[in-house]
TrEMBL record, chain A:
This is Carbohydrate ABC transporter membrane protein 2 (CUT1 family). SUPFAM superfamilies: MetI-like. It comes from Actinocorallia herbida. InterPro entries: BP-dep_ABC_trans_perm, MetI-like, MetI-like_sf. Pfam families: BPD_transp_1. The keyword Transmembrane helix applies.
TrEMBL record, chain B:
PROSITE patterns: ABC_TM1 (PS50928). Residues 100-317 form the ABC transmembrane type-1 domain. The chain crosses the membrane at residues 32-54, 106-125, 137-157, 192-215, 244-261, 296-320. Residues 1-22 are annotated as: Disordered. Keywords: Cell membrane, Membrane, Transmembrane, Transmembrane helix, Transport. This is Carbohydrate ABC transporter membrane protein 1 (CUT1 family). The keyword Membrane applies. GO terms for biological process: transmembrane transport.
């Protein structure tokens, strides 16, 4: 397709703007993480005059960042494993079988994704507090409680995405397995799951990312022992001076694992994400 | 984990306490799809259905801080909670209405801009050029970044005296005052636009991603046929690209609308616990009214109203867009 000259100019202009817009915060984060405190407290300077890695050392002692890291890891990991495992079976049922209630189930799963988190937060908070009072099972403030609240968004998402992914795997494959003597469950575990490993990994990464970045539930459902990074990071700003260099260093440290995972697996992720949306 | 594994009763019809082999024989009678769905359905009931019923129930109770530990003792309120938050002559009603309008404006601005940037980026990146792969990867980074890390960085950039934004706009471009005249971004009228900018920064890559995928599904020969008919670049964009993207855009708009309208994270991290009223989105307003004054009945009533509003808009949108699809 030949294109007029204005389009190639528009391309440079628009993509240049978008690149700049995207980069500026990333640059601000990196550059400020390498500055001493007094340099982030003065006027903004593009090029750090004094480079230091001290913020990366200090972040661990200013607040209990390592504890928050572990909490985030456990909660996000558990929510991911739980939702993906359960979703594999449900998605297989939805993508391979005709049965009564199939549509009802799909529509319910799809629609719970649109519900505001705040709608579940208040009742879950109340239920957790009351369960704690009447049975002694501590859910409010515990990691388990937080995992349960995270399932409210990660489970429907995983079911929806995996159903789309499984549907793209030819049914002839499972039928061939059945001819070879596999039951339907065997076909799922030996054929469909291995064939969709990229999709499952992508969904897992995405579920993990969402849990890792979650703020609303974490800010209500955690106490000082179970606080996640999303809430804990804000403690740098409650000091007398805001340690912006440390805030930026910590933001960088908590971002690198998920961004790296995302970029490594983006091809699968994009394929999976869009399979659901574009269909 | 005991709470997670409660059986869903309607799937296994046998009421008796069966032995292992009997259980297995019983389960053999249950169609496989239902067995596969069993854990998911049980969890869905536990995490979605029960909380929703409780939430609706809460909205009809006078659930103040005295009754949070034992909500069965809370007196009924009938429709009082709804009447109270919908009475626009009182402070509570006015605050709800104000935050509703802020949310509507925020959603409109943020979704429109994210869609515009996403479309422009995706369409202009259709053609191969040097550095295309790198640029695409860069554009995906905001989407991958943990949301609070990104928003905290923006909060730093919006600082009045030490931030990058005032440095660029004031010192470099001379568009705003400097020193004592420098504008505040995180309080007052500007805070609304600060919120929109952060939200667009975060959401446009998603639009970009989805539209890129939609573009890949447009058959090339449509463009060739259009070119033979003498259609120029813009005409091809209007007459081939846009109509072919319509189904993708319909889903995209809905998803962006729901995300943005329900957004809690952006204002909460950008401004802290108490955002300026110009940027107090509805989720944050409900959160504040519930956990600051500990009146969960009011909070629940507002959540239910929010849900009803979203259901209504979504149903209307789906009805209109599916009707249009059958006409075209």
């Amino acid at each position: 397709m030949s294109e007029p000259r204005w389009v190639s100019w528009a391309r440079r202009l628009v993509l240049g703007f978008l690149a700049l817009f995207t980069l500026l915060p990333l640059y601000a984060m990196l550059a400020s993480a390498l500055k001493p405190l007094r340099d982030v407290q003065g006027d903004w300077h593009w090029i750090p005059t004094r480079l230091t890695v001290e913020p990366f050392v200090e972040i661990w002692s200013t607040i209990p960042l390592a504890d928050y890291f572990v909490n985030s890891l456990i909660v996000s990991g558990a929510a991911t494993v739980l939702s993906v495992t359960i979703a594999i079976f449900a998605a297989y049922a939805v993508s391979r079988f005709e049965f009564r209630g199939r549509n009802l189930f799909s529509v319910t799963v799809l629609s719970t994704q649109m519900f505001p988190g705040i709608l579940f937060l208040l009742p879950l908070f109340l239920i957790f507090v009351n369960i704690g009072n009447s049975t002694g099972v501590v859910l409010y403030g515990s990691r388990l409680g937080l995992v349960i609240t995270y399932l409210t968004f990660s489970l429907p998402f995983a079911i929806w995405m995996l159903a789309g992914y499984f549907a793209s795997i030819p049914k002839e494959l499972d039928e061939a397995a059945k001819v070879d003597g596999c039951g339907p469950l065997g076909a799922l575990l030996r054929i469909v799951v291995p064939a969709s490993t990229p999709g499952i990994v992508a969904v897992a990464i995405y579920a993990f990312m969402t849990a890792w970045g979650e703020v609303l539930f974490a800010s209500v459902m955690t106490d000082s022992d179970t606080r996640t990074l999303a809430v804990g990071l804000q403690e740098y700003s409650t000091q007398v001076d805001v340690y912006w260099n440390q805030v930026m260093a910590a933001s960088l440290v908590v971002s690198v694992p998920v961004v790296a995972g995302f970029l490594l697996l983006q091809r699968y992720l994009v394929a999976g994400l869009t399979a659901g949306a574009v269909k | 984990m005991t709470t997670l594994t409660e059986p869903a009763p309607e799937v296994a019809p046998d009421p008796g306490p069966p032995s292992r082999t009997r259980l297995r024989r019983r389960l053999r009678g249950v169609p496989l799809p239902y067995l596969l769905l069993l854990p998911a359905v049980a969890l869905e009931l536990l995490i979605h259905l029960v909380p929703m019923l409780v939430g609706v129930g809460m909205s009809f109770l006078k659930l103040t801080q005295f009754f949070i530990r034992d909500w069965s003792a809370a007196p009924g309120a009938g429709l009082d909670n709804y009447r109270f938050v919908l009475d626009f002559d009182t402070a509570a009603g006015r605050a709800l209405l104000a935050s509703f309008w802020v949310t509507v404006r925020y959603t409109a601005a943020s979704v429109a801009l994210a869609w515009l940037l996403g479309t422009a980026g995706a369409v202009l990146m259709q053609r191969e050029f040097r550095g295309r792969g790198w640029l695409r990867t860069l554009f995906l980074v905001p989407y991958a970044l943990p949301m609070y890390a990104a928003v905290i960085t923006w909060a730093f950039m919006f600082q009045r005296d030490t931030g990058m934004v005032n440095s660029v706009l004031g010192d470099t471009l001379g568009l705003v005052g400097t020193g004592g005249d420098a504008p505040f971004w995180l309080i007052g009228d500007n805070s609304f636009w600060a919120l929109v900018v952060v939200s667009v920064w975060r959401n446009w890559p998603f639009a970009f991603l989805i539209i890129m995928a939609g573009l890949q599904n447009i058959p090339r020969d449509l463009y060739e046929a259009a070119a033979i008919d003498g259609a120029g670049w813009w005409r091809q964009f209007r007459s081939v690209t846009q109509p072919m993207l319509r189904p993708v855009n319909q889903v995209l708009f809905l998803v962006l609308f729901l995300w943005t309208f329900n957004d809690f994270n952006t204002p909460y991290v950008l401004f802290g616990e108490s955002p300026p009223k110009e940027a107090s989105l509805i989720s944050l307003h409900i959160y504040q009214s519930s956990f600051k004054t500990w009146n969960f009945g009011l909070g629940s009533a507002m959540s239910v109203l929010l849900l009803l509003f979203l259901l209504l808009v979504t149903a209307g949108y789906l009805a209109v867009s599916s009707r249009r699809r059958t006409v075209v």
